Amino acid sequence: MIDHSHKFVSCESCGARKSSLFVDCSTDQTIELNNNKSCSHYKKNQGLFLEGSIPRGVYCINKGKVKVFTLGDEGKEQIIQIAGEGEVLGFRSIFSGEPYKVSATTLEDSNICFIHRENFLNMIDTNAALRNELLKEFSKELGERAEFITNMAQKSVRERLAFVLLILKDVYCEEPINLSREDLANFVGTATETLIRLLKEFKEDGYIDIATRKLTILNQTGLFKLAGTHHR
């Protein structure tokens, strides 16, 4: 059994579990999960794993936010996901048996649980509920990834910003969106200077409010229309 540190979070009482892959685990399965994981506190800008490294296991976010990204030819980040509480990272590479295709770094101080590869695969072999959740996650991700790629490839920067802000609203829920201008630009796929100019225009048009660097969505319907996407 793994030694439990002061950072340990019980799976039975974890609020993030209800939105994770482990939501339908039975009491016994939850206890097994609890006994086969470790919990760690990560500081802001601390890496979970690097593109090209060998996957050792999966990471479940108990508290905090994580950016998932790839690096371009000139070392510029292209963010492809902002993960929040309850999301599990790294399991795709566990199944493929290949090195990570992406990197993951915390955007804020976070508490993250880790399950070793062997323990995770053993849970999948013996846990039908977890297998079903994984299948649903793969199917959901396929649709969302196709939508994301289409929007990034075919829409203007202004439309992409509206689309990304809607994604971030889902991640941050009722909290203001707290993302650096550089990270937001890397998510939208544009220069930071262009991003800053567009945010000013969005504020003047009443789509958002800005307090320091934090963004609040004021006109979600307007952003949906601007992004040319459907309600989530």
Structural description of this entry:
The chain has about 230 residues and is an alpha+beta fold. It folds into 2 domains: about 130 residues, Jelly Rolls, CATH 2.60.120; about 70 residues, Arc Repressor Mutant, subunit A. The strands form 3 sheets. The chain has a 4-stranded antiparallel sheet. Helix 5 crosses helix 8 and helix 6 packs across helix 7. The protein is globular, with a radius of gyration of 19 Å.
Which properties best describe this structure?
8 helices; four-stranded antiparallel beta sheet; Arc Repressor Mutant, subunit A; disordered N terminus; globular; Jelly Rolls; 232 residues; alpha+beta
Outline of this structure?
With 232 residues, the protein is of the alpha+beta class. It has helices at residues 27-35, 91-96, 117-126, 128-154, 157-172, 181-188, 192-204, 220-227; strands at 38-42, 47-49, 57-63, 66-71, 77-83, 88-89, 103-106, 110-116, 208-211, 214-217. It has a four-stranded antiparallel β-sheet with strand order 1-8-3-6. A four-stranded antiparallel β-sheet has the order 2-7-4-5.
Outline the secondary-structure elements.
Layout: H1 27-35, E1 38-42, E2 47-49, E3 57-63, E4 66-71, E5 77-83, E6 88-89, H2 91-96, E7 103-106, E8 110-116, H3 117-126, H4 128-154, H5 157-172, H6 181-188, H7 192-204, E9 208-211, E10 214-217, H8 220-227
Antiparallel strand pairs: 1-8, 2-7, 3-6, 3-8, 4-5, 4-7, 9-10
Helix pairs in contact: 5-8, 6-7
